[in-house]
Amino acid sequence: TLFMLESGSHGTLCASAVAAQGVVSDGKVKGMAPNATIAAIGNHYSGGHALDGWRWIAEGIDGNPATFDDQPDIGSFSFGYSSIDDSGADAYSLYLDWLTRVHNNQTTYAVAIGNGGHGFGTTKVPGASQGIFSVGAFSSRSSSGSWGQTAPWSNRGPNVVGRMDPDIVAVGWSATGDIPLNSRNNGNSAYTTWGGTSLATPITAGLLALVAQAWWENLGERPHSQTLRDYVLSTADDRGYEPFVQGGGWFNASRATATLSGENGSWWASPAQWNTGTFQGQHRDANINAISQGESQTVDVEFSNTGSSDIVLEIEPQKFEPLSHFVTQWLSIGNGSDEGDNNTWDGYQGSRPDILIPIHVVNNTTYQLPDGTKMVRARAMIEYAAFDDNLDRSSNERAPIEFFRWTDTDGDGIWVEDYDNDSMVDDDDWTESSELEEITYWWSHGPQAEVRVGNPFEDMSDGLFLGIWRSDVSSSGLENVSIEYDWTAFGATTDEWVTTPQSITIPANTAFTSQFTVAVPQDAPSGLRQHGLHIQTFAVAQNGSIANQSHRDWTLPIVTNVPWSGPFNLLPKPLDGNVSNQTLYTESWISGAQRWNWRAESGDWRFLTVDWPEELDTGGTVILDVDWADNPWTDIDVLWLSQKSHGYADEDPDAYGDSTFWIESRSVNNHRGSGRHNWGTYTGESREVFVVPSSAGLHQLVLHTALHGV
């Protein structure tokens, strides 16, 4: 049974992702769990409160969480509160975690994290809650046959206390869904194509229903919410992204149900993700954790082999590292015509890119990604004077980007012509357009664009290409417009912080406990570190021989939070184009990532844990001073979070500890709506300075690029 929230066609679309019967238009729409029963509650946006709905899921009609017959098993929430900036420590997130962890631990919630990406830290409430399934959107692009790639607008982790989001990802980009029958003259055409984390969430809820049913059929009991969370994450597919983008991975309900049925070679793990460290003296499953330089933590992991034959797991600690990097600048010159000397832009607005860059071409030694590339990231930045020079928060020009898959169908080895040798894609150069298919793209309003491809060798056919546009939505009036673009290949390398047995054998139908240790070097930098345990699976035959190839690879995500101590300075890495300075999430680099026409989380966020020492708790103040290069278009907001009593500490003291966090002081919130922020600092310059009370213990320092200009 699932519980949905309705709002116009949005609720119908969500419900169809769960339980559509495949009737409309000869089966255009079919849900993940077509036999599920849906309980709907009016229009969430027209009255009442979500808190009542959340609790009703846990208690049912009789208000008693101990009686299960009248309760939905799974809640699906395709909405959120984007204006809440302490996501994960806020009252909504804490309440939802308490409902699923304590009040009724056999009720599960799937919650959308939002569509304001591509910035980090954009996961929103209540998707930032700890004990639920926070859901991100990945692709299922029927137009190109591409699937399992991150939707660039899907929100990302971490949350405000440095924990991983999303937990799981599912189809959220380009799928069919039902709309109300009375919205069409012919009910048989009452469907549409849609997307968003609003889609990925009911997809996840429907798949959870299948797994919960298989759990009951095979084990004779309802799954505990936190056990189910470990189970689903550890049977997911690793799509080649880091934890703050894919969480545990792509929901694989087929593997999850097969594992419950005891299919040979299947297994699952608990815990299925780890947030290294402690808070108030012990590890917390539902709060911040931190570990300082020179400290270590050893973790027990239980691997359950549900099959009737032994398996061998080979385990390697891994982290993402940049392998290659390319950056250049395109000075787009021209007035959108073919007149004048040295024009590099013909003004074309459409599907043909202005520039097409080969990233990797099969059997071409000039264009090769490094061996071991696990993910490719591309970015483009347009100068702010062309984007919004007059600061009216209405974008003019921008620089969309797109990854293409090339299939050399005619075998001529040509992906584009360049008859005039200007390195631009002119109209008569675009002869092979039918051989280039979209994998992923970014066309949203913002001065910076980003796209990624995970496991690129699986999704490129004969080649991987990057397209760049100068999109003249509303002319800036500038003839010369600078667009900087880059791409970086990242691979998984051995992580020296983590030690673990290299190989373990798990007997048939057995649970086996292994350990790994995270040891933070004495000279380690402070900040959040994304790493994990890469696990390969090898079948063992009855004669004891071990298979030569792994039949399943998965990475158990680890996030390690190393705090800053006392007064500190943090300086950016140099913008010199060196491979070693390329990063994914790091506190020493913050980007733009605005998505105008969305919501308040638009931008890039960083969360720094600060351990203020006892000896400096003297009743004075702390000066927060964030300075950036003088730039009238950039504004970085600063928030300071301190501890307060945790409202559910007595309900589960081990999971929560005594305290949570609240925003004690902050920059002025200049959000004017639709993801647009007005410029404003306390100094009136490119610098934010204010003071906060000095108090010992952990605090969270938050940075947010409300505006970003280059």
Can you lay out the helices and strands and say which pair or pack?
Layout: E1 2-6, H1 9-19, E2 38-43, H2 50-59, E3 74-77, H3 91-103, E4 108-112, E5 133-141, E6 146-150, E7 168-178, E8 191-195, H4 197-219, H5 225-234, H6 243-246, H7 253-260, E9 267-270, E10 274-276, E11 296-305, E12 311-333, E13 355-361, E14 373-382, H8 384-388, E15 397-398, E16 401-406, E17 436-442, E18 448-454, E19 463-468, E20 471-472, E21 480-494, E22 498-499, E23 503-506, E24 510-519, E25 527-539, E26 552-562, E27 564-565, E28 605-612, E29 621-627, E30 635-645, H9 653-656, E31 659-666, E32 671-673, E33 676-677, E34 687-693, E35 697-707
Parallel strand pairs: 1-2, 1-3, 3-4, 4-5, 5-7, 10-26, 27-28
Antiparallel strand pairs: 5-6, 7-8, 9-11, 11-24, 12-21, 12-23, 12-25, 13-19, 14-18, 14-21, 15-20, 16-17, 16-19, 22-24, 25-26, 28-35, 29-34, 30-31, 30-35, 32-33
Helix pairs in contact: 1-4, 2-3, 4-7
Give the CATH topology of the largest domain.
Answer: Rossmann fold
* DSSP summary: helix tally: 9
Report the top-level CATH class of the largest domain. Alpha Beta
Averaged pLDDT: 93
Q: Characterize the overall form.
A: globular
Biggest sheet: strands, sense, closure? 8 strands, mixed
Uncertain parts: none
Straight-line distance between termini: 50 Å
Count of separate structural domains: 3
Query: Which range does the strand content fall in?
Result: 35-45%
Helix content: 10-25%
| Topology, number of strands | 35
- Name the assembly state: single chain
- Structural class, judged by helices and strands? mainly beta
Radius of gyration over all CA atoms, rounded: 25 Å
**Would you identify the CATH architecture of the largest domain?**
3-Layer(aba) Sandwich
What's the CATH H-level superfamily name of the largest domain? Peptidase S8/S53 domain
